[in-house]
Design brief:
With 270 residues, the chain is an alpha+beta fold. Helix content is 18%, strand content 42%. The protein is elongated.
């Protein structure tokens, strides 16, 4: 794996740890991995087809990028100061049963003159102009309907992702269980009336760049670079993925987890 270390536990389960944390000999993770009896106890409660993830939110994203096609469940445990979708380490001491929480992904396909690139995103697809130059694009939401836009960027976010970058852009949040996704323009120059568009689950969104001035465009799926500083014509297709991500949340942490989700969606300060 590119950014993760895979540890095969004696109980037949897999553990994923960020390479950076292993390289720097993270003492907290090392101590946790040394607790053989505790690991066996946790693994006794969960199915065989699971990855335990030790790290932070970024570690989850890396695990999803590399293993989503395996259709596994994820048991994420936090080893950082701030986190969102991970269990706390304290919750593992008296975890009880685990509840599965499902989250959708976005699929993106990018077509250039020479290549086709595919990627997945848990939070958002970000299509951005490079070097502070506006880009002209056509956004096609139905075969018979398109919108010509001039902007600095476009975000297409999942419900969970709507509480991140999309929220910082000042636009609506979606409940995590909503059967929708949202497209938000960044610094839109034309049309002035445009607002975020909420799409149903099965909607296919197409973006076509064809600009005589050839400003450069970059595309990101979460923190992954899909296309960087590309000057020429490009076609982009985004839709909800057929795959979902399942997180296992400990019963002892479930109330705190759901409170954090609620606070993210409704600007509640805990």
């Amino acid at each position: 794996m590119k950014d993760l270390v895979l540890i095969n536990h004696s109980a037949g389960k897999n553990i994923l740890v960020d390479k950076y944390r292993i390289k720097n000999k993270d003492i907290d993770i090392a101590n946790f991995l040394a607790r053989e009896e505790k690991l066996n106890e946790i693994f006794d409660w969960i199915s065989q087809n699971v990855y335990m993830i030790l790290g932070w939110d970024g570690t989850i994203l890396k695990a999803i990028w590399e293993t989503a096609e395996e259709r596994v469940d994820y048991l994420p445990i936090n080893f950082w100061t701030k986190w969102f979708l991970l269990n706390s380490r304290e919750a593992m001491e008296n975890h009880g049963w685990f509840k599965r929480k499902s989250y959708p992904l976005l699929d993106i396909k990018v077509f250039t003159e020479k290549t086709e690139i595919q990627a997945k995103a848990f939070n958002e697809i970000a299509i951005k102009a490079t070097w502070a130059k506006m880009v002209d694009t056509d956004i096609i939401v139905w075969e018979y309907s398109s919108i010509n836009m001039r902007w600095d960027g476009l975000l297409i976010s999942t419900p969970a992702g709507s509480t991140g970058y999309n929220r910082s852009a000042g636009w609506p949040l979606l409940p995590h269980n909503a059967n929708t996704f949202i497209a938000t323009g960044l610094n839109v120059f034309e049309p002035r009336w445009i607002r975020p568009i909420v799409f149903p689950n099965k909607q296919i969104v197409k973006v076509h760049k064809n600009n005589a001035r050839k400003p450069e465009l970059s595309i990101f799926a979460d923190d992954q670079t899909v296309l960087k500083n590309y000057r020429w014509d490009v076609d982009i297709i985004v839709q909800k993925s057929r795959l979902k991500v399942n997180f296992l949340i400990a019963n002892s942490y479930l109330k705190e987890f759901e409170n954090k989700v609620y606070a993210e969606q409704w600007f509640v300060v805990n």
